[in-house]
Amino acid sequence: MLASTVQLTRAARDQGYAVPAVNVFDEVSMRAVVEAAQVAAAPLIVQVSVKTLRSLGTPLVGATFEAVTKDATVPIALHLDHCPDRAVISMVIAAGWSSVLFDASDRDMDDALRETTEVVSQAHAVGVDVESEIENILGVEDGVGSAEARHAYTVEELAKAAEATGADLLAPQLGTSHGAFKTPPKLLPGRVRDLAALVDRPIVLHGGTGLIAEDFQSFIQAGVSKINISTAVKHAYMQSAAQHLDTASRRDKWDPPSLFQDITVAIRVEITDLIEQFGAAGRAHTATR
Question: Is residue 14 annotated as a catalytic residue, yes or no?
Fold first, then answer.
């Protein structure tokens, strides 16, 4: 059974931790992150990018999620990550996923508010939660985003926008960027605190690559309760695969299931460590209260 993204993140906010929201790319990576959550007894949000969705198709992603999570004893939500495409948003809402991130950061304020309100109305009609991004978080992730700041607003403007649209979760610019940092970031946990004082909605941290445990804790203490993970999974996946294939080539032994196992272990180790850093380990039993 799909967990509610907003319910998981509200519980995390109230209890002082963050739910890991992990981008996956296939069955191997999906199983790995679910296994990590199971072992750590942590709530989890499985995320899929538009690029991955278009590659695999909505029916296959949904069927894979159902198969991978059918015996899970921890609450797990299924979420569409950064999506500016209304047609894709509608397709995922119709499929009944837990939530979608409607990325309107490439629109001006009036269009962003109008379209986000429309998406929220459409999603809420069938019980799907909506994460909103109207000011762009720097960096390009799976073909979505921009390396330049296009729209930035005050926390007061973001709070008014949230109230106007009815969005369930908010993804503000917090000084981070998608992908690896090219220069040291100027982190803005104080902006979380200011926004949290104005709105009763979970706040999401995007672009956590390169942050250390103390950085994550400063954001969580300020009010962040969903932290997105993507680049770390890609690195674990591809570096593990590269090492395995190098060894296979030297030994001239080619066994795909062994490759998948090495990738699984690498991702599981990475996600288990982040679950601990976010304070989510052992929280599964209280995550839906």
Answer: no
Residue 138 has pLDDT above 70, yes or no: no
In the chain, where the domains are located = 5-233+268-286
Has residue 42 got a pLDDT over 60?
Answer: yes
Q: What is the distance between the alpha carbons of residues 66 and 70, in angstroms, rounded to a whole number?
A: 6
Binding residues for Zn(2+): 82, 103, 133, 178, 206
List, in order, residues 6 or more apart from 102 with CB less than 8 Å away: 83, 84, 89, 115, 116, 119, 130, 131, 132, 133
- Among residues 26, 81, 111, 273, the one annotated as catalytic is 81
Look at domain 5-233+268-286 and name its CATH class.
alpha beta
Q: What pLDDT is attached to residue 39?
A: 98
Binding-site residue set for dihydroxyacetone phosphate: 179, 207-209, 228-231
pTM > 0.90: yes or no: yes
